[in-house]
Design a protein that fits this description.
seven-stranded mixed beta sheet; globular; five-stranded mixed beta sheet; binds iron/sulfur cluster; 13 helices; Metallo-beta-lactamase, Chain A; 14 strands
């Protein structure tokens, strides 16, 4: 089983999309992305928009080869949307891929009117009815009964969790339960997973009166869950603030277990762009009409992308891979032969899961057209200066 997390707050966007490769199946869970429309009165910074665009493309690439797609619920950062904003994933872009694979979607019960409408939009786009997947199982896949979206009583909406098992290894994806409902934690533990990916508590939404209680409740659940698994990945709502990152560090120390963000899971530096939004605006000011121009397809992201990396590096927020200056992946990207996703998600954040990096470190030969994930791309050849 190969688990690749494609979208999460520690990777620079809102979402919890992952692709799970099995022997005969490729499962994509929650193919959606968002940037947070407004934080402290500010729209997403263009650097966030650039990183989000790369991740949106990566999700679409994963969908093209998917055999199964799971939608845990119909929030805008978890599913393609008929009425996507300029930073989300549009249904039309994903429709062809979705129509070719098995779909496992949460049913319409205990959902907001907007979520129910998005489910109907998907059914209409695909020309078929979606069966409610809660409580079902098929082959390596199993889906939970509905669990609360957040803490009991606070929100009556529900989400669906996914269990995937192959060759004795079990992975669980549990989005938006926020580590606040002990019943959801109990269900996960009964599934006996080795690796669990969950959304953490939304600390950014709470003022001082409720914050400590929220941290305590989520901490209790995280400690209990971490004791029963090998790796607990906590991301999503939690990492929309630096306070969330501090909570994760404390929880890791308290448990003594492997408790990491999505970035930590693959041993790369986190890119907490939503929490850094104010800093990005102060380091790289944005003209007033930029977002309208972007929505009209008239704004260029390339300048903000390259300047964004420079200011983040200069201010010590990220450190590029030591091989970056001499790596053919940089050359391919600088010359427009390769999409920037690879340098954005590997080279510029020192991603130690890079297969090229691992081979460089042990002096093993690897071709110039091998990508950081170990696959090769036909037609890529290095320019000899
Ligand atoms: S492709 Fe891998 S080895 Fe090359 S710079 Fe990027 S992270 Fe480093």
């Amino acid at each position: 089983m190969n688990i690749k997390i494609l979208a999460a707050e520690s990777l620079g966007v809102r979402g919890l999309c992952c692709a799970v490769e099995l022997k005969g199946r490729r499962v994509v869970i929650d193919p959606g992305v968002a940037l947070g429309w407004s934080r402290r009165g500010r729209l997403p910074h263009p650097f966030q928009v650039a990183i989000g665009a790369g991740i949106r493309e990566a999700i679409l690439r994963a969908l093209r080869t998917a055999t199964d797609v799971v939608i845990s619920h119909f929030d805008g950062d978890h599913t393609p949307l008929l009425h996507a904003n300029p930073y989300q994933l549009g249904l039309e872009e994903a429709r062809g891929s979705l129509s070719r694979c098995r779909l496992w979607a949460k049913g319409p019960g205990r959902s907001s009117p907007t979520q129910q409408q998005r489910r109907k939009d998907l059914e209409e786009a695909l020309g078929r009815r979606l069966v409610a997947a809660e409580g079902t199982r098929e082959g390596p896949l199993a889906f939970s009964a509905p669990v609360r979206h957040g803490q009991p009583g606070a929100d009556e909406r529900t989400v669906m969790m996914t269990r995937i098992e192959e060759d004795g290894l079990t992975f669980v994806h549990a989005s938006d339960m926020q580590l606040l409902d002990p019943a959801a934690v109990e269900t996960i533990l009964q599934w006996q997973p080795a690796i669990v990916l969950v959304s953490g508590p939304p600390l950014y939404r709470h003022g001082s009166s409720s914050l400590e209680a929220l941290k305590q409740r989520a901490g209790d659940n995280a400690r209990r869950l971490s004791r029963g698994v090998d790796t607990l990945i906590v991301d999503h709502h939690l990492l929309r603030s630096e306070e969330g990152a501090a909570w994760l560090d404390r929880t890791r120390q308290e448990t003594g277990k492997r408790v990491v963000s999505a970035a930590g899971f693959i041993d790369r530096e986190p890119l907490l762009l939503e929490s850094w939004r104010d800093k990005l605006y102060s380091w790289l000011p944005v003209p007033e009409a930029w977002h309208q121009r972007y929505a009209a397809g008239a704004a260029d992201l390339a300048w903000y992308r390259s300047e964004g990396w420079k200011v983040l590096t200069k201010n010590g927020m990220v450190t590029p891979c030591g091989w970056y200056r001499v790596c053919p992946i940089k050359d391919h990207t600088d010359r427009g032969r390769l999409e920037s996703y690879w340098v954005d998600n590997y080279c510029l954040v020192s991603n130690r899961s890079c297969v090229r990096y691992q081979m460089e470190e042990r002096g093993a030969y690897h071709a110039d057209n091998m990508l950081p994930d170990g696959t090769t791309r036909e037609g890529l050849s290095r320019t000899i200066a």
